[in-house]
């Protein structure tokens, strides 16, 4: 079987963990990116809780939440409890909820209620506080991200065409994440 590590056009970053659900899709997409003469990288595959917390921390830093949460300057424990209003919540839950209000789409490290009202950046609907959001599909090994700091629309078109034409099997969802500079792909 072809290996994603041998891809030439949709290359897999060295720290990305693959799974049986995502690897054949990544292998098949290589030919689609070659057809489009577009170089792209898989930036995330299977994640565990620690990787998800690290992703939340990085997005929080990238989006200027350090001013609001100076504790992020140190090696803040994202499981530490912080006060919001009159209640205590883990720091990750507060950061994740704040990121959603800023249009940064990321799932929690476990099923959790969101703390603040936000507009879903793709579906455009308003989500009320207390709505329970599922854990990331990355935990279950059924999702991967393609980096799209540049040429997001072109890369999105390659993946959507691959799915629509049936040339690449196994894709069930494609979500452009503009604020994250990535395209999230859900697989069977
Ligand atoms: Zn993703």
Keywords:
22% strand, five-stranded mixed sheet, alpha+beta, 188 residues, binds zinc ion, Threonyl-tRNA Synthetase, Chain A, domain 2, two-stranded antiparallel ribbon, elongated
Your description of this structure?
The protein is built from four helices and eleven strands; from the N terminus they run βαβαββαβββββαββ. α2 crosses α3. β3 (81-84) and β4 (87-90) form a beta hairpin. The chain starts with 9 loop residues before the first strand and ends with a strand. The strands form four sheets. A five-stranded mixed sheet has the order 1-2-9-11-10. It has a two-stranded antiparallel ribbon with strand order 3-4. A two-stranded antiparallel sheet has the order 5-8. The protein has 188 residues and is of the alpha+beta class. The protein binds zinc ion (ZN). Zinc ion binds next to β9. Zinc ion binds at residues 44, 138, 143, 145, 184.
Topology:
Blueprint: E1 10-12, H1 23-35, E2 40-44, H2 49-62, E3 81-84, E4 87-90, H3 91-101, E5 112-113, E6 118-119, E7 126-127, E8 132-133, E9 143-147, H4 152-164, E10 171-177, E11 182-187
Parallel strand pairs: 1-2
Antiparallel strand pairs: 2-9, 3-4, 5-8, 6-7, 9-11, 10-11
Helix pairs in contact: 2-3
